[in-house]
Structure to design on (280 residues):
C-alpha cells in the first residue's frame, strides 16, 4: 500500500514538473479574459507569462486526481485566506461553470467534510508554512480519506493561489475597480542615469562613515520591539469585514515571525554561509 502511494506521488510530481511545457488546447482558452489584469501586468515579460499561464491552466484543468469543482473550490479557500477578492470572484465563477454546487459558496459549513478538512493545512501554508509536518499529511490520508495523489494536487493548488494572491496585492491588481484599467505605476521612480546613481551611492557612503562599525551595529540592533510584531487585532478585523469570512475558519491564526532578531528559534534551521564574487 505504501509503495503504491509513493508511486502515485511520483507520477503526480513528474506531471507537475512538466507543466511549464504543457498548453491545454481543448475546451479551455489560456488567454481567458478573467485573467486580463494579471496578463496585462505580466505582459512585459512574455516568456514568464507563457510559463505562468501554462502552469496555471495545467493545475486547474490538466490531468490530475481532483475533479474540477474541487480544484476551483480549493483555489477559493486559498485566495480567501489572503483576502484576495479578485481571485475569489474568478474562482467562484469558474467553480459554477464546471458543475460546482452553488450551495458550497455559502461557506465551509456547506461543503463535504473531506474538503473542509483542508482548512488546517490551508491556514498553515498561508501564514506559517514551517509548521506543516508529516502528522498533518497522515491525518488527512488516514482520517479524512484523502489519497496521496489527491492531497499532493490540493497542496499544489493551495500554494499556487497563496503566492498568486501575493502577486495580485503586490501589483495593486486587487484594488482596481475597472477590470480593463491599467496597473497604476505612478509611484514608480523615473529612470535614473548611472552618474546619478553613483552620486547617491557616494552620499550614502559618506553618511555611513559618520558612525563607527560598532555604532552602526548597535543602531541596527536597536529595533523597537513593537516594530517586530504583527497587529493581530487589525488582521482579525479585516477577516471579519472582508466578505470572505464564510470561507475562513480560525480567523485569529495569522502570520507570525519565524524567528525574531536576538531570539532563539523554536524550529530547526539549516543555514549555509557562502562567499561569492562576481567572478564565480
Amino acid at each position: 500500500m505504501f509503495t503504491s502511494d509513493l508511486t502515485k506521488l511520483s507520477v503526480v510530481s513528474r506531471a507537475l514538473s512538466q507543466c511549464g511545457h504543457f498548453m491545454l488546447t481543448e475546451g479551455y482558452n489560456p488567454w481567458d479574459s478573467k485573467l486580463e489584469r494579471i496578463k496585462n501586468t505580466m505582459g512585459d515579460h512574455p516568456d514568464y507569462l507563457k510559463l505562468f499561464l501554462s502552469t496555471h491552466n495545467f493545475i486547474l484543468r490538466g490531468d490530475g486526481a481532483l475533479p474540477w469543482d474541487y480544484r476551483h473550490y480549493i483555489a477559493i479557500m486559498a485566495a480567501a485566506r489572503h483576502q484576495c477578492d479578485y481571485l475569489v470572484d474568478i474562482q467562484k465563477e469558474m467553480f459554477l461553470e464546471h458543475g460546482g454546487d452553488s450551495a458550497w459558496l455559502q461557506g465551509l459549513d456547506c461543503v463535504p467534510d473531506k474538503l473542509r478538512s483542508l482548512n488546517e493545512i490551508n491556514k498553515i501554508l498561508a501564514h506559517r508554512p514551517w509548521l506543516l509536518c508529516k502528522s498533518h499529511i497522515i491525518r488527512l490520508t488516514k482520517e479524512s480519506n484523502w489519497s496521496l495523489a489527491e492531497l499532493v494536487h490540493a497542496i499544489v493548488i493551495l500554494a499556487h493561489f497563496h503566492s498568486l494572491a501575493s502577486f495580485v496585492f503586490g501589483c495593486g491588481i486587487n484594488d482596481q475597480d475597472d477590470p480593463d484599467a491599467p496597473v497604476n505605476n505612478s509611484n514608480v521612480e523615473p529612470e535614473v542615469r548611472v552618474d546619478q546613481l553613483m552620486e547617491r551611492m557616494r552620499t550614502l557612503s559618506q553618511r555611513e562613515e559618520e558612525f563607527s562599525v560598532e555604532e552602526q551595529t548597535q543602531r541596527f540592533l536597536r529595533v523597537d520591539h513593537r516594530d517586530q510584531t504583527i497587529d493581530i487585532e487589525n488582521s482579525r478585523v479585516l477577516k471579519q469585514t472582508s466578505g470572505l469570512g464564510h470561507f475562513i475558519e480560525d480567523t485569529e491564526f495569522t502570520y507570525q515571525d519565524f524567528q525574531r532578531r536576538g531570539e532563539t528559534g523554536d524550529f530547526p534551521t539549516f543555514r549555509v554561509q557562502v562567499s561569492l564574487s562576481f567572478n564565480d
